[in-house]
Amino acid sequence: MQRLKKRSWAEPFKIKVVEPLKMTSREERERALKEAGYNTFLLRSEDVYIDLLTDSGTNAMSDYQWAGMMLGDEAYAGSRNFYRLEDAVKRYYGYAHLVPTHQGRGAEHLISRILIKPGDFVPGNMYFTTTRLHQELAGGTFVDVIIDEAHDPASLHPFKGNVDLGKLEALVKKVGADKIPYISVAATVNMAGGQPISMANLKELHAFCSRQGIRIILDATRAVENAWFIKIREKGYESRSIAEILKEMCSYSDGCTMSGKKDLLVNIGGFLAINDAEIFEEARNLVVVYEGLHTYGGLAGRDMEAMARGIEEAVQEDHIRARIGQVEYVGEKLKAIGIPIVQPVGGHAIFLDAKNFLPKIPQVEFPAQTLAAELYLESGIRSMERGIVSAGRNKETGDHYYPKLELVRLTFPRRVYTQAHCDVTAEAVEAVYERRDTIRGLRMVYEPKYLRFFQARFERL
Ligand code: PLI
Question: Measured in angstroms, how far is the CA atom of residue 56 from the centroid of ligand 1?
Answer without folding.
Answer: 7
